[in-house]
From TrEMBL:
Record SUPFAM superfamilies: Acyl-CoA N-acyltransferases (Nat)
Pfam families referenced in this protein's UniProt entry, alphabetically: Acetyltransf_6 (PF13480)
Organism: Pelotomaculum schinkii
Protein name: FemAB family protein
Domain BioF2-like acetyltransferase residue range list: 167-306
Membrane-spanning ranges: none
Family: Belongs to the FemABX family.
Domain of life of the native organism: Bacteria
Length: 353
């Protein structure tokens, strides 16, 4: 058995050095302390670092107080916690040679840490390209929940273009002919346009309150993720009509948040935006562009994204683990009279309300 330590945002430099120790698996921006710091309202950012011989595992997560859930404040006899990946992708990363024994020992240590710290549940959003759900197949309940689309930017520009769906290529040409143009900005110069269109899009699609992030999150991105974010705006007649906030590092780019004004759909502003983003990312040597999926499997949003990479389908997995069944049953009983805000199958169940 090896040994472990737990880092926080105050240990930023060491956290980054530990990620450097697993650089052969190409960690995403989502693993960095600055990214976890975006979600300080959700919980405390931590990174569990396990070492055994020359092998290591690093597992960043958010550590959340359960008594902050509406309906539970002041009602618990002891402080309880749960942990989750932040918005995006997460889960553990292991050094290249870490085998099954090391992974078993890692999770045994992690489960003991959870027990000592009153952590009752764990929720993981695994990374679809890194495939790190395979690291915990024996330890947590793994579930494939949806598909996401990824553009391989290692292909030539012509290969990428010819790989688009035929109608997509036609719509991009139509957007150019209509005089639309896309601007890329590494500052929030058009932030008012962005937030207005993004919120309008959320409301139109009936999205949950979860997606209406507070202003502090954007301030944090602008201040702490300089050089790792870019805004793309489609302009028609001097007006922003489609917009997207993207996050990236040297290896991955992500469609993070965005939207389009529906009265401009006919000009295909989102088609030209994605196309120009792909060109921008490729010129900077970024390897993969993850567009995400839809609200539901195979819906119109998913089909639109797939038109940029018909062969770019990836499986998205989540992980669930109950560390203290008795505490979970108690919380579920305390919350059962509340009106659920989330659908069936939401994990953990006591956070549905």
């Amino acid at each position: 058995m090896g040994h472990y330590e737990v880092l926080g945002l105050q240990d930023r430099q060491q956290w980054l050095e530990e990620l450097e120790n697993v650089k052969e698996v190409c960690p995403d921006l989502y693993y960095r302390p600055e990214y976890h710091g975006l979600f300080k309202d959700w919980g405390e950012a931590r990174a569990f670092v396990y070492r055994e011989g020359n092998d290591m595992v690093i597992y960043p997560f958010l550590f959340r107080k359960i008594d902050l859930i509406p309906g539970l404040k002041g009602k618990l006899k002891q402080q309880l916690y749960d942990i989750t990946s932040p918005y995006g992708y997460g889960g553990p990363l292991a050094s290249h040679m870490a085998g099954e024994k090391v992974l078993d020992n890692f999770y045994r240590c992690f489960a003991a840490y959870c027990e000592r710290n009153n952590v009752i549940t764990e929720f993981i959003r695994f990374h679809p390209l890194l495939g790190n759900h395979r690291l915990l197949e024996k330890q947590v309940e793994i579930e494939r929940v949806s598909s996401v689309i990824c553009v391989d930017l290692g292909k030539s520009e012509e290969e990428i273009w010819l790989g688009y769906g035929r109608n997509n290529r036609k719509n991009i040409k139509k957007a150019y002919q209509a005089g639309l143009k896309v601007i890329m900005e590494d500052t929030p110069a058009h932030f008012t346009d962005f937030i207005s269109i993004y919120h309008h899009t959320l409301a139109r699609n009936g999205a949950g309150q979860f997606y209406f992030f507070n202003g502090e999150l954007y301030d944090h991105i602008h201040q702490e993720l300089k050089g790792n974010f870019i805004y793309a705006h489609t302009i028609k007649d001097n007006q922003v009509v489609s917009t997207e906030l993207l996050l990236y590092n040297n290896f991955y780019m992500h469609s993070f948040l965005g939207g389009t004004l529906e009265q401009y759909y006919q000009y295909r502003p989102n088609n030209i935006l994605k196309h120009e983003v792909i060109k921008w990312a490729k010129t900077r040597g970024i390897k993969y562009f993850l567009l995400g999926g839809g609200y539901r499997e195979g819906d119109g949003i998913y089909r639109f994204k797939r038109s940029f990479a018909p062969d770019g389908h990836l499986d998205f997995y989540i992980g669930k683990k109950v560390h203290n069944h008795e505490a979970v049953r108690m919380l579920e009983k305390m919350m059962e009279s509340k009106i659920p805000r989330e659908g069936e199958g939401y994990f953990p169940v006591y956070r549905r309300y």
